[in-house]
Write a sequence for this structure.
């Protein structure tokens, strides 16, 4: 008597299928396994490329736009986190103005092209190491991260079938918490929208 039992997919198998599907069906570019790289909240190379190619920005305008964005992202403690997130969301949604030179009016540039989504840069990476400010807390390493123009927009945490959904949710929740409730440091990856 034979039975047709399908083996349970491993987490790695599922991760490979997700990556393959995102590449084939949604056009995400695979940027690699970032396990050995200390990643920042923004992949500036991708953002710079988008601002130059899609928004036709000069080097000076790119630097100005990124400086404005970084100023909004900097958040000294959790007291200001809500306001910082609100400001960053506004920049991502509506853009910012940059100088066109002395005597010329400023122009608006977008960090994400909402009207022409095909003009955005869609990337994915796996095993993305997220640096932590506190040395008492180990680095976080989400399984898959999806980027739009260098911004980490989606984090996928995969679990084996035998692991409860609650454990997966708890891990995602921990990834978003402050490094150390005592010192109030904020993780530099999951705090922006």
């Amino acid at each position: 008597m034979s039975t047709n039992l399908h083996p349970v997919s491993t987490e790695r198998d599922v991760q490979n299928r997700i990556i393959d599907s995102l590449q084939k069906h949604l056009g995400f570019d695979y940027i690699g396994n970032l396990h050995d790289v200390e990643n920042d909240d923004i992949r500036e190379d991708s953002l710079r490329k988008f601002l130059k190619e899609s928004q036709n920005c000069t080097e000076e305008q790119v630097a100005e736009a990124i400086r404005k964005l970084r100023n909004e992202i900097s958040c000294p403690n959790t007291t200001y986190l809500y306001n910082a997130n609100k400001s960053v969301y506004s920049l991502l949604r509506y853009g910012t103005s940059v100088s066109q030179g002395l005597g010329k009016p400023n122009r608006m540039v977008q960090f994400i092209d909402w009207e022409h989504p095909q003009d955005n840069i869609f990337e994915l990476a796996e095993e993305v190491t997220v640096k932590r400010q506190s040395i008492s807390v180990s680095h976080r390493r989400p399984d898959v991260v999806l980027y739009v123009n260098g911004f980490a927009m989606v984090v996928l945490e995969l679990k084996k079938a035998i692991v409860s959904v609650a454990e997966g949710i708890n891990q995602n929740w921990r990834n978003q918490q402050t490094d150390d409730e005592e010192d109030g440091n904020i993780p530099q990856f999951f705090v922006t929208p």
Q: What stands out?
A: The beta strands are 29-33, 96-98, 107-109, 122-126, 144-148, 151-156. The chain has one domain: 11-176. Confidence is low (pLDDT under 50) at residues 179-193. Helices lie at 11-26, 44-53, 59-73, 81-94, 165-176.
